C-alpha cells in the first residue's frame, strides 16, 4: 500500500511539474516586432549570395534583395531598368551601351562602378554557375570605357538578352570576389556584401535568416525594417504556422484544399493570380509506340483535364493549352484548343489499328505489341501521384495499360533527363512532369522545349524532332521585333498542338496567403508570387 | 580483465568498420546523380562541359576505391567532407544539429527511465493485481501506437488547436532572446516532441523493469532478507530494486542507439532540427557526404553507449566484479 | 507476495480476437465496404455524412472503404515481412546455436552489427535507394528485423542442444541434418511462431512510419499511405484529422496490439524460462 502511495505521489509530482512548466512557458511566444515581417521559406538557401543560393524560386528572388541586377522583372515579368539609367542598342542588335546611375554604393561603402559589372560577367564565364554561365556564351566581351558606362558586345543578336541576362545576373563587388577563383571556393564563400535594399544580418543553419534594411539604398528606404526568413520544409507546418500567426507570409503557394478556409480566416488575405508553372504528361517521343502521333492524340483525348482541375486542384488551376503556352502569356496563340473525349480516343485508337486481339482488355498494335506503359511520377508530390492514378484509370477504360512507378527526384531525372543533359538520351515511356514559372516567361521557351538539337532544345526531354519547328525556332531566337516573335510563336504552337509531344494537363494558380495586419504592401509578380524586390522597394525613377 | 576488454575492443572495431563500410557503400549504390541538388534547378541550362566541370570540382567522378580511401583517411582526421548541397563542412553542419537531438533524446530517456522504473516496480510488486494487469495493457497499447501518429495528434490538439505550444522548430526564429528567456523559449519548443518521445519510450522501460523485478523477487536472497525480518520497503529498495536495475541500466545504454532512431520520426513530425531530421533531409537531397557523416556520428554514439554499458556493468554488479 | 498466476490466457484471447476481427474484415472487405476504394464517389475533402461515414479523402474516395481494404494491404505487408525475417532469423539462430564454434561467432557478430546500426535511419536509406514499391518495403523490413529473433532462437537451440537425447543422437553418429530436422527444429518451431507474430506487429508499425515519411508505396492503399495523404493534404488545418487521421492510427494500434498480445501470450506459454 505504501509503495503504491509513494509511486502515486511521485507521478503526481511529475505531472504537476509538467503542467507548471507549460503554464510558465506559454506566454513566451514571440510578438512581431514593429517593422519586422516573418516570411517563411521552404528550404535552406546557402548564404543568400549569388554562388550559394539554392533554388530558382524563391532563392534567386531572395538573393536579389541583397544584390542588384542591371534590370529587374516587374509585375508583368517585363524587365525595367534598375541599376541602369540609360540603354542604347546598336542597329544590328550586337552592341549594348548601358549608363549606370550615379552614386551607387556597396554595403561596405565602396562605390559600384562599371568595373564591377565588367568583372561580374567575366567572372560568370570563368567560374561556372549553372544559371549564368550559359548566358555568357553569347558574349564577345564587356568593356568599361568610363566608371558609369558599360558596353556589351554580343556574338549574335539575342531577343532575350535584357530579360535573361541583364535582368538575371547580379552584380558582384570586384574588390571582394576577385580572389575567389575556383567553383569550390565560390560555393563555400560566405560574404554577403551586396548593393541591395537588405543586408544579411544573421544566418542560423537551416533555421532562419535575418535581413535588415539598407537605409542608404539608392531607390529609397525599404518599407520593412527587418525581414526574418524561417525555414519550414513541410507545407502543412508552414500553413499551420501562418494560421496560428507564427509567420506573416510564405513563399509557398497555398494548396487548393486550404483556400476556402484561409479566405474566411480573420486577419489573413488571399491573393490569387494565374500561375505559370505547368503540370504536364511528358511522352518519350522516341519510344517505338509513342512515336505514333495518333496514339499520343488518343491518349490525350482520354484524359479529362477539366475533371483533373476540378478534383486535384479543386478548380484552382487553368486547363492546359495544347500549344504549351499559358493563355495569359503574351505569346499565347488563341484558337489553339483541345477537347478531351473518350469517344474520340476510342475511335482514334481503332482507326490507327490498335485493337484488343486477345481479349485481355489491353489493345495491341498491328505487330502484336500490347499498349502497356510505365508512368513515372515524383514521390514527394501527392497531387501528381493522384493525377497519375486518375490517368491510369482513364487509359485503362480505353484499353491502354499503365503501371505507375513512383520514384524520388534523382531517380526520375536519371531516366528522363540523365545528368540534366538532353544529349544523353532517355529511358522512359511517360512521366507526369512539371516546369517552373520562369520557363513560361521566356519567349524562347518553345525553342528550349521542342528544338531537336540538344544544344538548343535544352529541355526537350522527350526527344521530339520536327524540321519545321527547328526552322521556326532558329528564326525566333534572332527575331527582336515583338510582333514577328508573336507570329512565329503562334505557328510553332499550332504544330505542337497537332503533334502533342507533351500534353499539358493544367497550370496551377498562384495563390498567396499572408497576414494583412503584419504587412500589406506586397507586390504581386505575375505567375510567381509576392517574393520580389518590388514588395519592399518601389522601382527607381 | 584486460583480455575481456581486448576481446570486446576487437568486436567493436569490427562493428565500426563494417558499419562504416556499409554507410559508405549504400549511398554510392543509389540511382541518380547528386547534380540534381548540386546546382539547384537551373542546371538544365548548362552545357555539358560546364556540368562536367562541376562534377569534377566535387569529386563525384572518381572511382569508388579512390573515394573510399579518401573517406577513411578523412574519418581518421575527423574530416567528414563537404556538403554537396550547402558547400559547408559536414562536421560543422552535424555539430550544429546534434545538440538538439542529444537534448531531446537525453532528457526523454532520463524521464522515461525514471517513470518506467517506478511504474515497473509498482506493477511487479502488485503482480497479478489490477494495477499490474492494467499497466501491462496500457504499456502494450502505448508500445503499439505509431509514434508519428501520436505526434500528429499532439500537434493538432495542443499546437494548432489550443495554441498552447509552437507548431515547429527548436526556437522562435529571429526572436533574439538571451539567457533565461532563451532557455524558456527552447524548453517551450521542446515540450511536445519530448512528451511524444518519452511516452513512446516508457513502455520498453516499464516492461524490462517489471520483468527484471519479477525475476529478482523470486530469487533466494529476497527470501533470505525477508526471513531476516527486513521490512517490505527495505526489501524492495535495498535488495530487489538494486539488482533489478542492472539490466535496466544496460538497456538504458543500449536504447540510446535505438532512441536516436525513433527520434528521427519525431524530429520530422515536429520539424525539430536534430540529426535524425538531417539524415532524412540528406537522403532526399542525395547529399552523400552529409548522409555518410550523419550515419557515422550515430553509429559511433551507439558504439560508445555500448562500451559505456560494458564498463559500467561490472561496477554495478558485485558478482561480476569478483568473478574477474 | 502471492504467486498468483496472472491471466496470460486473457491477454492472449484479446489478442487473437483483435486479429481475427481484422482478418475477417480483410477477407470480407468487398462485402463490408460500402464502395470500391479506388472510385471517386464523392466530392473531395467531405466531412462524415450518411453517404460517407468517415468522409472522403483528397480525391473524393470513401475513407471507410479505403480503411477496410487497407486491412488487406497492411496485414499482407506485415505477414510477408515477418515471414522473410523469421525465415532468416530461424535459420541463422539454428545454425549458430547448433554448430557453435566460429560459425556461431561470425553469425553473432553479424547479428551484433545489425543490432548496433540504428534501424530506422538504415531503413530510410534502403527504402530511398530501392525506391517506393510494395516488395521493396517488405524486403527492407525483412532483412533488418531478423536479428533479434535470431538471438532468441539461438538461445533456445543452445538449451535444446544440451538435452540428453540430442547428445545421445550425436554420440550415435546421427547426421547433423537429421538431428536438426527431427529434434532441434520442432523444439524451435513454436518459438519461431511466437516471434513471427511479434515481428508482424513490428513490421506493420515500420511500414506505417515509412509510408508516412513518403518512402512507402503511395499507390498501395495501406493505412500508412492514408496517413501520408492526410498529412500532406493538410488534414490538421481543416479539422479533417478527426476522421482522416484518428481512425487509421487506431486501426494500426489495434493491429499491432493484437499481434503483440498474441505473441506475448504465446511466448509466455511456450518459453519455460519465463513461466512462473
Structure description:
The complex is a heterotrimer of chains A (541), B (324) and C (276). Chain A has a six-stranded mixed sheet with strand order 14-18-13-17-15-16. Chain A has a five-stranded mixed sheet with strand order 8-9-10-1-11, with helices on one face. A four-stranded antiparallel sheet of chain A has the order 4-5-7-6, covered by helices on one side. Chain A has 17 helices and 19 strands. Mean pLDDT of chain A is 87; it is low at 18-34. With 541 residues, chain A is an alpha+beta fold. Chain A is globular and about 80 Å long. Helices cover 32% and strands 19% of the residues of chain A. Helix content of chain B is 78%, strand content 0%. Chain B has 13 helices and no strands. Chain B has helices at residues 2-29, 35-38, 48-57, 64-77, 90-125, 130-144, 147-161, 179-217, 220-227, 232-269, 275-285, 288-316, 318-323. In chain B, helix 1 (2-29) runs antiparallel to helix 12 (288-316), helix 6 crosses helix 8 (179-217) and helix 7 (147-161) runs antiparallel to helix 8. The N and C termini of chain B lie close together (6 Å). By secondary structure, chain C is an all-alpha fold. Helices cover 72% and strands 0% of the residues of chain C. Chain C is built from twelve helices and no strands. Chain C has helices spanning 8-27, 29-32, 63-99, 101-116, 119-130, 134-145, 147-161, 164-171, 176-212, 223-232, 241-244, 246-270. The longest helix of chain C has 37 residues, at 63-99. The two termini of chain C are 13 Å apart. Chains in contact: A-B, A-C, B-C. Chains B and C meet through helix 1, helix 6, helix 7, helix 10 and helix 11 of B and helix 4, helix 5, helix 9 and helix 12 of C.
Largest beta sheet of chain A: what is the strand line-up? 14-18-13-17-15-16
| Approximate shape of chain A | globular
Q: What fraction of residues of chain B sit in β-strands?
A: under 5%
Q: How many strand units of chain B?
A: 0
The SSE order of chain B reads HHHHHHHHHHHHH
Kindly state the percentage of residues in helix of chain A.
25-40%
Number of helices of chain B: 13
Looking at how many chains there are and whether they match, the oligomeric state comes to heterotrimer
Q: What is the distance, rounded to the nearest whole angstrom, between the alpha carbons of the first and last residues of chain B?
A: 6 Å
Q: How would you classify the helix and strand content of chain B by structural class?
A: mainly alpha
Biggest β-sheet description of chain B: none
Mean pLDDT of chain A: 87
Approximate strand percentage of chain A: 15-25%
Helix proportion range of chain B: over 70%
- Described by the principal axes of the CA atoms, the overall outline of chain B is globular
Give the mean pLDDT of chain B: 75
Instruction: Please state the CA-atom Rg of chain A, rounded to the nearest Å.
Output: 27 Å
Low-confidence stretches of chain B: 36-42
Q: How many beta-strand runs of chain A?
A: 19
Amino acid at each position: 500500500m505504501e509503495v503504491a502511495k509513494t509511486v502515486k505521489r511521485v507521478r503526481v509530482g511529475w505531472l504537476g511539474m509538467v503542467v507548471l512548466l507549460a503554464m510558465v512557458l506559454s506566454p513566451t511566444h514571440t510578438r512581431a516586432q514593429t517593422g519586422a515581417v516573418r516570411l517563411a521559406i521552404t528550404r535552406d538557401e546557402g548564404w543568400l549570395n549569388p554562388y550559394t543560393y539554392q533554388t530558382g524560386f524563391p532563392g534567386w528572388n531572395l538573393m536579389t534583395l541583397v544584390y542588384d541586377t542591371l534590370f529587374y522583372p516587374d509585375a508583368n515579368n517585363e524587365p525595367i531598368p534598375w541599376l541602369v539609367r540609360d540603354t542604347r542598342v546598336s542597329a544590328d542588335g550586337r552592341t549594348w551601351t548601358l549608363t549606370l546611375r550615379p552614386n551607387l554604393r556597396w554595403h561596405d561603402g565602396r562605390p559600384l562602378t562599371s568595373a564591377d559589372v565588367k568583372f561580374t560577367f567575366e567572372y560568370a564565364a570563368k567560374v561556372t554557375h549553372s544559371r549564368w554561365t550559359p548566358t555568357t556564351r553569347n558574349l564577345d566581351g564587356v568593356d568599361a570605357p568610363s566608371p558609369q558606362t558599360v558596353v556589351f558586345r554580343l556574338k549574335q543578336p539575342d531577343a532575350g538578352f535584357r530579360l535573361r541576362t541583364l535582368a538575371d545576373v547580379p552584380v558582384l563587388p570586384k574588390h571582394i570576389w576577385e580572389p575567389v577563383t575556383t567553383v569550390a571556393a565560390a560555393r563555400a564563400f560566405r560574404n554577403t556584401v551586396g548593393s541591395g535594399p537588405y543586408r544579411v544580418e544573421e544566418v542560423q543553419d537551416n533555421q532562419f535568416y535575418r535581413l535588415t534594411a539598407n537605409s542608404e539604398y539608392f531607390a529609397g528606404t525599404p518599407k520593412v525594417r527587418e525581414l526574418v526568413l524561417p525555414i519550414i520544409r513541410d507545407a502543412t507546418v508552414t500553413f499551420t504556422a501562418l494560421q496560428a500567426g507564427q509567420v506573416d507570409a510564405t513563399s509557398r503557394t497555398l494548396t487548393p484544399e486550404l483556400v476556402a478556409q484561409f479566405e474566411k480566416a480573420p486577419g489573413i488575405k488571399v491573393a490569387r493570380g494565374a500561375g505559370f508553372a505547368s503540370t504536364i504528361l511528358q511522352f518519350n517521343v522516341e519510344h517505338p509506340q509513342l512515336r505514333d502521333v495518333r496514339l499520343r492524340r488518343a491518349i490525350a483525348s482520354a484524359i479529362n483535364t477539366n475533371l483533373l482541375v476540378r478534383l486535384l486542384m479543386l478548380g484552382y488551376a487553368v486547363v492546359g493549352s495544347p500549344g504549351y503556352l499559358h493563355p495569359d502569356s503574351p505569346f499565347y496563340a488563341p484558337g489553339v484548343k483541345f477537347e478531351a473525349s473518350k469517344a474520340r480516343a476510342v475511335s482514334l485508337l481503332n482507326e490507327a489499328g490498335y485493337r484488343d486481339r486477345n481479349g485481355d482488355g489491353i489493345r495491341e498494335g498491328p505487330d502484336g505489341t500490347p499498349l502497356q506503359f510505365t508512368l513515372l511520377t515524383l514521390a514527394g508530390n501527392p497531387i501528381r501521384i493522384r493525377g497519375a492514378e486518375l490517368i491510369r484509370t482513364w487509359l485503362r477504360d480505353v484499353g491502354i495499360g499503365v503501371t505507375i512507378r513512383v520514384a524520388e527526384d534523382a531517380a526520375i531525372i536519371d531516366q528522363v533527363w540523365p545528368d540534366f543533359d538532353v544529349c544523353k538520351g532517355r529511358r522512359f515511356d511517360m512521366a507526369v512532369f512539371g516546369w517552373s514559372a520562369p520557363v513560361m516567361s521566356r519567349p524562347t521557351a518553345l525553342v528550349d522545349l521542342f528544338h531537336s538539337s540538344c544544344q538548343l532544345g535544352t529541355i526537350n526531354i522527350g526527344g521530339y524532332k520536327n524540321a519545321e519547328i527547328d526552322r521556326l525556332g532558329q528564326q525566333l531566337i534572332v527575331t527582336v521585333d515583338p510582333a514577328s516573335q508573336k507570329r512565329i510563336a503562334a505557328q510553332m504552337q499550332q504544330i505542337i498542338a497537332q503533334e502533342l509531344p507533351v500534353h499539358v494537363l493544367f497550370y496551377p494558380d498562384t495563390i498567396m496567403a499572408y497576414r494583412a495586419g503584419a504587412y500589406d504592401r506586397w507586390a504581386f509578380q505575375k505567375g510567381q508570387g509576392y517574393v520580389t524586390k518590388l514588395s519592399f522597394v518601389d522601382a527607381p525613377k | 580483465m584486460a583480455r575481456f576488454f581486448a576481446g570486446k575492443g576487437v568486436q567493436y572495431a569490427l562493428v565500426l568498420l563494417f558499419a562504416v563500410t556499409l554507410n559508405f557503400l549504400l549511398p554510392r549504390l543509389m540511382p541518380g546523380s547528386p547534380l540534381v541538388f548540386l546546382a539547384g534547378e537551373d542546371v538544365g541550362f548548362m552545357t555539358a562541359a560546364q556540368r562536367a566541370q562541376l562534377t569534377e570540382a566535387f569529386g563525384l567522378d572518381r572511382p569508388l576505391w579512390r573515394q573510399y580511401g579518401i573517406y577513411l583517411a578523412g574519418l581518421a582526421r575527423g574530416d567528414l567532407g563537404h556538403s554537396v548541397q550547402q558547400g559547408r563542412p559536414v562536421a560543422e553542419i552535424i555539430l550544429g544539429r546534434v545538440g538538439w537531438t542529444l537534448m531531446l533524446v537525453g532528457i526523454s530517456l532520463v524521464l522515461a527511465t525514471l517513470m518506467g522504473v517506478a511504474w515497473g516496480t509498482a506493477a511487479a510488486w502488485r503482480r497479478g493485481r489490477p494495477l499490474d494487469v492494467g499497466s501491462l495493457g496500457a504499456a502494450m497499447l502505448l508500445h503499439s501506437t505509431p509514434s508519428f501518429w501520436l505526434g500528429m495528434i499532439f500537434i493538432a490538439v495542443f499546437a494548432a488547436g489550443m495554441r498552447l505550444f509552437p507548431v515547429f522548430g527548436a526556437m522562435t526564429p529571429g526572436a533574439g532572446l538571451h539567457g533565461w528567456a532563451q532557455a524558456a523559449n527552447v524548453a517551450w519548443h521542446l515540450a511536445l516532441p519530448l512528451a511524444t518521445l518519452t511516452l513512446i519510450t516508457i513502455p520498453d522501460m516499464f516492461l524490462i523493469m517489471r520483468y527484471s523485478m519479477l525475476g529478482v523477487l523470486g530469487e533466494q536472497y529476497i527470501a533470505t532478507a525477508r526471513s531476516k525480518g527486513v521490512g517490505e520497503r527495505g526489501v524492495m529498495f535495498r535488495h530487489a530494486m538494486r539488482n533489478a536495475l542492472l539490466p535496466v541500466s544496460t538497456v538504458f545504454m543500449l536504447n540510446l542507439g535505438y532512441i536516436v532512431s525513433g527520434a528521427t520520426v519525431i524530429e520530422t513530425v515536429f520539424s525539430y532540427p536534430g540529426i535524425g531530421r538531417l539524415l532524412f533531409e540528406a537522403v532526399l537531397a542525395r547529399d552523400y557526404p552529409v548522409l555518410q557523416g550523419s550515419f557515422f556520428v550515430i553509429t559511433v554514439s551507439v558504439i560508445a553507449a555500448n562500451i559505456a554499458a560494458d564498463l559500467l556493468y561490472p561496477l554495478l554488479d558485485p558478482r561480476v566484479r569478483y568473478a574477474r | 507476495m502471492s504467486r498468483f498466476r496472472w491471466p496470460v490466457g486473457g491477454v492472449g484471447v484479446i489478442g487473437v480476437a483483435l486479429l481475427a476481427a481484422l482478418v475477417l474484415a480483410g477477407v470480407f472487405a468487398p462485402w463490408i465496404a460500402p464502395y470500391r476504394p479506388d472510385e471517386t464517389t464523392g466530392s473531395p475533402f467531405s466531412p462524415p455524412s450518411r453517404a460517407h461515414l468517415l468522409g472522403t479523402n483528397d480525391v473524393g474516395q470513401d475513407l471507410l472503404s479505403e480503411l477496410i481494404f487497407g486491412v488487406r494491404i497492411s496485414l499482407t505487408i506485415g505477414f510477408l515481412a515477418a515471414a522473410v525475417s523469421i525465415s532468416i532469423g530461424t535459420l541463422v539462430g539454428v545454425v549458430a546455436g547448433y554448430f557453435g564454434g566460429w560459425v556461431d561467432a561470425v553469425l553473432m557478430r553479424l547479428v551484433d552489427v545489425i543490432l548496433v546500426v540504428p534501424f530506422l535511419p538504415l531503413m530510410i536509406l534502403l527504402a530511398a535507394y530501392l525506391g517506393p514499391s510494395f516488395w521493396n518495403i517488405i524486403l527492407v523490413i525483412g532483412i533488418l528485423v531478423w536479428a533479434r529473433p535470431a538471438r532468441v532462437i539461438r538461445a533456445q537451440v543452445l538449451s535444446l542442444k544440451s538435452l540428453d537425447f540430442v547428445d545421445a543422437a550425436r554420440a550415435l553418429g546421427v547426421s547433423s541434418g537429421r538431428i536438426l530436422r527431427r529434434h532441434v527444429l520442432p523444439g524451435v518451431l513454436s518459438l519461431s511462431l511466437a516471434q513471427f507474430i511479434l515481428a508482424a506487429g513490428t513490421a506493420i508499425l515500420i511500414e506505417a512510419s515509412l509510408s508516412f515519411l513518403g518512402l512507402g508505396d503511395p499507390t498501395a492503399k495501406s493505412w500508412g499511405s492514408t496517413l501520408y495523404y492526410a498529412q500532406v493534404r493538410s488534414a490538421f488545418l481543416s479539422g479533417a484529422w478527426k476522421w482522416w487521421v484518428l481512425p487509421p492510427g487506431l486501426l494500426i494500434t489495434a493491429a499491432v496490439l493484437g499481434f503483440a498480445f498474441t505473441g506475448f501470450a504465446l511466448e509466455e506459454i511456450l518459453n519455460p524460462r519465463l513461466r512462473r
